[in-house]
């Protein structure tokens, strides 16, 4: 049995283990004498581990004390097998006198030195004599080895930990000793594990980064020292661009030096929080609550059926029903969205139990019924086929009802408005004495709800108080708070047989915040903050999961996987769990790099090895307390040039208390480190903050868990909602509630940027929080992405514009606090700087054409030094790509598609983003964006029809110009060299090589312009001809022909 010392001098042992610096020892086998000396039974020399058994690690230096089983007798080992058991008073007992120390220490027996009682010794001696007498019989006839199985059967012996023998009589070990039942208790298990990338991949990767960095530095120095005297302007432009590219590559590469993987243990989560225990006798769920936010704004661009399927997938997740709440924010206040959500809740009453009964995946009905695989795979219940057929018919009827809602609402409104008009005319005639009316009666064309009342949101014929930007706040709880106990179904002829299936569905609420003229509503960030406040009043889940309306739950266990990180040891320092974005409906070739796997599987995985991934706007589980702007319970500060000096950060909460007692000095040197104070005038909301913080703590079930909560603290059921509570929730979503508060500045989603997601995550990291990247085996969430070139470029334009705004704002990482790690700073610096690379990229893409047109090149000649540097840089880049593919799991084709779209987006959307950002900063011109459409093209037969739709945009001009100029320059350069008296082939080869490099990156853009089967729109021909003529005339004027 593996043992270590259990000396009472625990403090001295801890100090000695930390001070001793010798290398770890190998495991040794021995027995312990009555004097405390351990005699070696291995081939090594005797070892003296007396005293405190000093060593440098309790987990490494330990002794395996051999038990007295028949094939391992301590007496035989020490005296050649001639001595009997009773001639050795110092022989070890059944365990060797001490117990295994694995994180916690236990004593065995009554004796401080590990001895056992006389009765136990006598019983052991009798067993030893019987074992020795039967040992010859129990030897295997062929090998002569001891037959363990036969001995166990004949003596009814048992084995415990390792090969230690356990007696049936627990009294042999003393009443204060350890019995087998103590070791059968389940040990403490971590909920997550950190898996390092193998050193065989990571070490060469880091070495190649260093080699390429040295090569780039030497190449730039060589370029500066070897100018092209014949074309200094060409040399200068190319050198500046190459220097910036090297700097940009370094910013992108440094945060990738420490990628990691993580795994979760869902079984351990279930055992800790949902199994019967002394603190939880009925086995109720002790997991914290989760509030799921879904945001939508326009039912025309975000179809209600897509949103309804997302809601259904959320309501059916595998998480305690009473701990889950779902909210949808309709920022357009559209009655179509409202009634579609009501239909979705009605359908959820049969869809959610069906998913639980048959363990359906995915739990989005549209995705589930669109699966190409066999639906009966791994399904064992005999009524599955009948149930699936019935629920499929119900879903088809549900879709028809959703699709028919616009027409149904229109007819309803016409009917009610006609009735109102008839009433007004009748009333007017009565006032006129029954005479015919000379003037028409004007009746407001209102939008009516199903109950015959006016819709308080946006009307189809807008008037005051019913515009999209001017309407009252709306909050409707469509599904009430579920009961704390399961509600089992029963057989029903009209619906499915849900016997033994919990038919409850989580609480669901529709929210549309109040909007009034004269208020800045701050787009999506303002809508999210309104939901934060409303949910704090209604459910106050300590964790918030936010999803876009087109991102549905693909893995019903995703919430549990994220909860493993939050509830694990050290989870109280995690502000959010970011899940990767996965997309459906992308063309097989992924022409425009919509999957973005290089970022989600490469960059984000690498950031997880630092302070955590950035927040990307959807698929993220937040800690509510961190979202309120508070600090983590423990944080570190990093000082020095590279942040190499790590110290514990001061406790801001304690400093705040001292300041309130009369201290007038500032709390910190950074504004982000001040504590939030102004939450608004809602007392219910303010009281909910401390509750959310406590409920979000990990379980204090281990000595190493800090800032934990006691087990069983979350077993109290939620009270039902009452009218005053709902009224308070409506009040906190009013447009005036944020006046004179810190919402959007220090609390909640941060305002002032079109990429509020990145800024919000940055602020949390700046306070010392860390985040985690959770990649699940089965994708956690899936959504849609624009496969149309125009929509894709507009999406990239919005992201890049937000990055430019960040760079020119107080959120620039150059102004960050000392709680941000150095490499995390580099990553955020790259987020703000990468759009500016487009300026150098556009210039560099024109350089090959200028070289061909002028007959010059960026270097004097293609000498050995230039080609050697070029070859080294290219080979190291290729090898880095191969290793990055290895540790990230992306494909080489995906990596190449990312490189191609980097050039396409950099020469179009990124350049426009820099111009727009500069206009906003210098001239104060605001930037407005439209929603990315989630609808497909009109061709229902081709799911990729939208890929071939060409929507002309000004973003096409620069990439198209680059393509045409390079093609024309190639023709001119080749013609001039072929018909020249003294052809300069080296300059032609150099310019042609780089022109082909540019054109190969522009190939997806060219295919996008051609449309389906090469049908190119007329505008493309017009622009191509115009640019070609302009370039030709420019070349003739610069270099006129002779004569």
UniProtKB/TrEMBL annotation:
GO terms for biological process: cell wall organization; cellulose biosynthetic process; plant-type primary cell wall biogenesis. The chain crosses the membrane at residues 207-225, 231-251, 827-853, 865-883, 955-976, 988-1006, 1018-1038. It is found in: Endomembrane system. UDP-alpha-D-glucose binds at residues 295, 301-302, 331, 523. InterPro entries: Cellulose_synth, Nucleotide-diphossugar_trans. It comes from the Eukaryota. The active site is at residues 331, 757. Mn(2+) binds at residues 524, 548. The keyword Membrane applies. It is a multi-pass membrane protein. Keywords: Cell wall biogenesis/degradation, Glycosyltransferase, Membrane, Transferase, Transmembrane, Transmembrane helix. Residues 1-100 are annotated as: Disordered. This is Cellulose synthase-like protein D1. It comes from Vitis vinifera.
């Amino acid at each position: 049995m593996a043992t270590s010392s259990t000396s009472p001098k625990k403090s001295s042992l801890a100090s000695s283990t930390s001070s001793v610096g010798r290398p770890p020892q190998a495991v040794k086998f021995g027995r312990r004498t009555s004097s405390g000396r351990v005699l070696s039974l291995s081939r090594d020399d005797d070892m003296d581990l007396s005293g405190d058994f000093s060593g440098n690690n309790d987990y490494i230096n330990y002794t395996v004390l051999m038990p007295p089983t028949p094939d391992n007798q301590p007496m035989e080992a020490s005296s050649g097998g001639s001595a009997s058991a009773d001639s050795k008073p110092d022989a070890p007992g059944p365990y060797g006198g001490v117990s295994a120390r694995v994180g916690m220490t236990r004593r065995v027996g009554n004796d401080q030195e590990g001895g056992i009682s006389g009765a136990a010794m006598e019983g052991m001696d009798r067993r030893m004599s019987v074992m020795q007498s039967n040992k010859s019989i129990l030897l295997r006839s062929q090998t002569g080895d001891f037959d363990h199985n036969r001995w166990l059967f004949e003596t009814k012996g048992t084995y415990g930990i390792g090969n230690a023998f356990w007696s049936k009589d627990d009294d042999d070990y003393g009443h204060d000793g350890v019995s087998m039942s103590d070791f059968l208790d389940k040990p403490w298990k971590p909920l997550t594990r950190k898996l390092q990338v193998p050193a065989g991949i990571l070490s060469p990767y880091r070495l190649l980064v260093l080699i390429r960095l040295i090569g780039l530095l030497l190449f730039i120095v060589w370029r500066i020292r070897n100018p092209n005297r014949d074309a200094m302007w060409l040399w200068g432009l190319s050198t500046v661009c190459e220097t910036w590219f090297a700097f940009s590559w370094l910013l992108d590469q440094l945060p990738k030096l420490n990628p990691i993987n993580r795994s979760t243990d869902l079984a351990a989560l279930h055992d800790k929080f949902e199994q019967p225990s002394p603190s939880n006798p009925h086995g109720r769920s002790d997991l914290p609550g989760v509030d799921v936010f879904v945001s939508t704004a326009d039912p025309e661009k975000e179809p209600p059926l897509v949103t309804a399927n997302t809601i259904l997938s959320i309501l059916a997740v595998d998480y305690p029903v009473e701990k889950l709440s779902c909210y949808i924010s309709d920022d357009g206040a559209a009655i179509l969205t409202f009634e579609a959500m009501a239909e979705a809740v009605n359908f959820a009453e049969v869809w959610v139990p069906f998913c639980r009964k048959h363990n359906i995946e995915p739990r989005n009905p549209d995705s589930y019924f669109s699966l190409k695989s066999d639906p009966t795979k791994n399904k064992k219940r005999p009524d599955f086929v009948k149930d699936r057929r019935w629920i499929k018919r119900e879903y088809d009827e549900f879709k028809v009802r959703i699709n028919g809602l616009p027409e149904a609402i229109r007819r309803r409104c016409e009917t009610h408005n006609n009735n109102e008009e008839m009433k007004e005319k009748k009333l007017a005639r009565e006032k006129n004495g029954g005479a015919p009316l000379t003037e028409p009666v004007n009746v407001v064309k209102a939008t009516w709800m199903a109950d015959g009342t006016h819709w308080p949101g946006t009307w189809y014929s807008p008037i005051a108080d019913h515009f999209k930007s001017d309407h009252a706040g709306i909050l409707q709880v469509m599904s009430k708070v579920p009961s704390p106990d399961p509600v089992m179904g029963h057989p029903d002829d009209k619906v499915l047989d849900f016997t033994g299936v919990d038919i409850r569905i989580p609480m669901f609420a529709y929210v549309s915040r109040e909007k009034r003229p004269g208020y800045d509503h701050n787009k999506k960030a303002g809508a999210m903050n309104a939901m934060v406040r409303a949910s704090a009043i209604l459910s106050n889940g300590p964790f918030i999961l936010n999803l876009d309306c087109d991102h549905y739950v693909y893995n019903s266990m995703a919430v549990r996987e994220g909860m493993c990180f939050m509830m694990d040891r050290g989870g109280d320092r995690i502000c959010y769990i970011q899940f990767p974005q996965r997309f459906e409906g992308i063309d097989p070739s992924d022409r425009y790099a919509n999957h973005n796997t290089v970022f989600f599987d490469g960059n984000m995985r690498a950031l997880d090895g630092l302070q955590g991934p950035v927040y990307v706007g959807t698929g993220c589980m937040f800690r509510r307390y961190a979202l309120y702007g508070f600090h983590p319970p423990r944080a570190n500060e990093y000082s020095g040039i590279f942040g190499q000096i790590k110290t514990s950060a001061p406790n801001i909460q304690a400093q705040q208390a001292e300041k309130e007692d009369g201290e007038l000095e500032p709390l910190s040197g950074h504004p982000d480190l001040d504590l939030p104070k102004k939450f608004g005038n809602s007392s219910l909301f303010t009281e909910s903050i401390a509750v959310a913080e406590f409920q979000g703590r990990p379980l204090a079930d281990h000595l190493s868990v800090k800032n934990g909560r006691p087990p069983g603290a979350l077993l109290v059921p939620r009270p039902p909602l009452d009218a005053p509570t709902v009224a308070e929730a409506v009040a906190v979503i009013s447009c005036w509630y944020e006046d004179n508060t810190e919402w959007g500045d220090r609390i909640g989603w941060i305002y002032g940027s079109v990429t509020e997601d990145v800024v919000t995550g940055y602020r949390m990291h700046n306070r010392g929080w860390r985040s985690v990247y959770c990649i699940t085996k089965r994708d956690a969430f899936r959504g849609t992405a624009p496969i149309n070139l125009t929509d894709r470029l507009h999406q990239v334009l919005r992201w890049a514009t937000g990055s430019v705004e960040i760079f020119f704002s107080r959120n620039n990482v150059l102004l960050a606090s000392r709680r941000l790690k150095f490499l995390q700073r580099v990553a955020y610096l790259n987020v703000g700087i990468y759009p500016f690379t487009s300026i150098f990229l556009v210039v560099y893409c024109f350089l090959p054409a200028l070289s061909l047109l002028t007959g010059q090149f960026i270097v004097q000649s293609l000498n050995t030094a230039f080609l050697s540097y070029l070859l080294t840089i290219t080979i190291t880049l290729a090898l880095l790509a191969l290793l990055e593919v290895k540790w990230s799991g992306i494909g080489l084709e995906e990596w190449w598609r990312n490189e191609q779209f980097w050039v396409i987006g950099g020469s179009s959307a990124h350049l426009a983003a820099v111009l727009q950002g500069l206009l906003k900063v210098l001239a104060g011109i605001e930037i407005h964006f439209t929603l990315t459409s989630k609808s497909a093209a009109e061709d229902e037969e081709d799911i990729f029809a939208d890929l071939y739709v060409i929507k002309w945009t000004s973003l096409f001009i620069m990439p198209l110009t680059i393509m045409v100029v390079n093609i024309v320059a190639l023709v001119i350069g080749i013609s001039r060299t072929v018909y020249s008296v003294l052809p300069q082939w080296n300059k032609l080869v150099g310019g042609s090589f780089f022109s082909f490099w540019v054109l190969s990156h522009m190939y997806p853009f060219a295919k996008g312009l051609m449309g389906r089967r090469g049908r190119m729109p007329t505008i493309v021909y017009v622009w191509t001809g115009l640019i070609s003529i302009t370039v030709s005339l420019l070349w003739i004027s610069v270099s006129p022909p002779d004569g």
